[in-house]
Amino acid sequence: SRSLNLAVIPGDGIGQEVVAEGLKVLSAVLPQDVKLETKEYDFGARRYHATGETLTDADLEALQQHDAILLGAIGDPSVPSGVLERGFLLKLRFAFDHHVNLRPSKLLPGVATPLAGQPEIDFVVVREGTEGPYTGNGGTIRKGTPHEVATEVSVNTAYGVERVVRDAFARAQARPRKKLTLVHKNNVLTFAGHLWTDIFNKVAEEYPEVTTEYIHVDAATIFLVTQPERFDVIVTDNLFGDIITDLAAAVSGGIGVAASGNINPSGDFPSMFEPVHGSAPDIAGQGKADPTATVLSVALLLRHLGYEAEAARIEEAVAADLGERGGLPARSTAQIGDALAGRVAG
Ligand code: IPM
Ligand code: MN
Q1: Is 76 a catalytic site residue?
Q2: Which ligand 1 atom minimizes the distance to the CA of 89?
Q3: Which residues of 11-41 are buried (b: 16+ CB within 10 A; e: fewer)?
Q4: Location of site Important for catalysis (predicted)?
Q5: What is the pLDDT of residue 109?
Q6: 293-319: b or e for each residue (b if 16 or more CB lie within 10 Å)?
């Protein structure tokens, strides 16, 4: 019989609440013969305040034993900015080489968008996850003086760019529209931008069926609002990808439904799946958070592990639930989770 050995990191704020619903739906959708094992970890603000630790080598070793990781949200106002971001989330993405940060955007029927009309939105952003300005390659001199200088170097390696570009081409090839857009800023960032563009054009030769285009990141923010239907797969660097995926979430139903995967395609390390939203301390503990983004992240997790039919069932359940939502009274976090679990068990 099969087994799924999951590390669960509820984290802070609403992370606890949404992860509980994600697990509910996961249990409901898994076939009988799959033995689900979960182990919960207490990372986040609690662990930090109790021990001063964010993520130790021993923690990484423990996490590495799992097939995948489900994360709620990490972050709390009681912890100085940057401590958990760098010390936990980015540390984990880097340690497990999560170089494909996958962020799909799909505007489902009945879901409100701030955009005029009901545009067709169905694209996926492949955000590079281990390089760019996120590597911590920088420093400050003359700190605190009027002449302080701060650098934050964007690191781009041919190896790192090529592997994520290849992943994006493969995803584009597998989709009906077969279109891939490179988003960068090669008119100004001429070193990194040209590395990306050259590698993109080289790999494109191996994918004659994939239509390619290049768009500067500033223009991309316009098109994401004025012509979102233009996009199918987007590949971009870590920081541009961070920014445009928040915009993408905002136009396609909001961060309440935006899912993501931090993926190591080789399987050398477990991949981690998490809602794009944060810990939302302002509404934590009130049963107000929408667990849909976490439930959709569970679908990405299942697809990554080869449970395609189960992933599709979750996505269909979410589409059906969101389609009805306009006509439903406001529901709590647990009520939405129950409704989705009911539908996938169906
Ligand atoms: C995200 C977040 C993180 C990022 C932060 C919290 C480090 O904004 O997952 O998009 O910038 O990647
Ligand atoms: Mn972000």
Answers
A1: no
A2: 7
A3: bbbbbbbbbbbbbbbbebbbeeeeeeeeeeb
A4: 134, 185
A5: 84
A6: bbbbbbbbbbbbbebeebbebbbebbb
Q: 270 with 245, same domain?
A: no
Examine the domain organization and report whether 325 and 267 are in the same domain: yes
Which protein residue has the closest C-alpha to ligand 1 atom 12? 242
Ligand 1 site, residue 90, Cβ cutoff 6 A = yes
Q: How much is the pLDDT for 328? A: 78
Is 289 found in the same domain as 246? no
User: Among 200, 229, 252, where does a domain finish?
Assistant: 252
Cα–Cα nearest to 225, from 243, 249, 245, 251: 251
Which residues sit with Cβ closer than 5 angstroms to ligand 2, an ion?
Answer: 242
Tell me how crowded residue 269 is: count the other CB atoms within 10 A of its CB: 19
Identify the CA nearest to 127 among candidates 67, 217, 211: 217
| CA pseudo-torsion sign 297, 300, 306, 311 | positive
Q: Which atom of ligand 1 is nearest to the CA of 74?
A: 6
Structural domain ending residue among the three candidates 252, 284, 307? 252
Q: What is the domain extent for residue 94? A: 1-106+261-346
In a shared domain, residues 185 and 91: no
- Ligand nearest to the backbone CA of 101: 1
Residue 234, number of CB atoms within 10 A of its CB: 28
Question: Structural domain tally of the chain?
Answer: 2
Query: Binding site annotation covers 47?
Result: no
The response to whether 289 counts as a known ligand-binding position is yes
Query: In terms of domains, do 248 and 120 share one?
Result: yes
Whether 167 sits among the annotated catalytic residues: the reply is no
Both 273 and 310 in a single domain?
yes
Report the C-alpha gap between 197 and 165 in whole angstroms: 10
Q: Is 35 a catalytic residue?
A: no
pLDDT at res. 327: 72
For residue 27, the domain's CATH number is 3.40.718.10
Which parts of the chain sit beneath pLDDT 50? none
Q: Give residue 346's pLDDT.
A: 67
